[in-house]
Design brief:
alpha+beta; 2 domains; rod-shaped
């Protein structure tokens, strides 16, 4: 538990240094922490973040999108929406009609 508290404190320190505009060395001197310790925690927290993200793919969501479904016979259906649920609704409707 103590380690998690220390990790959270150092994460705040790393964020504060980035916002401060000071070099890491100047920030550490001002805060009374060793530069080596700062770099250790920066590296350690970065590795923890990478491990948490393994197996996931970052996605970006566009505010509005056009969804298009082209059928083998040349017909197509297009939908302009702000909701990703629209594709599910469209596919459910097509599945129901062709079941």
């Amino acid at each position: 538990m103590k380690r998690k508290v220390r990790a959270a404190q150092m994460a705040q320190m790393i964020e504060a240094q980035a916002k401060s505009g000071l070099s890491k060395k100047a920030f550490c001197s001002e805060q009374g922490i060793s530069v080596a310790n700062f770099y250790y925690w920066q590296r350690r927290l970065s590795q923890d973040d990478e491990q948490e993200l393994q197996g996931f793919t970052a996605l970006s969501v566009r505010p509005a999108a056009e969804l298009e479904l082209r059928l083998p016979d040349g017909q197509w259906v297009g939908v302009r929406t702000q909701s990703s649920d629209a594709l599910r609704v469209l596919l459910d409707a097509i599945a129901t009609d062709h079941a």
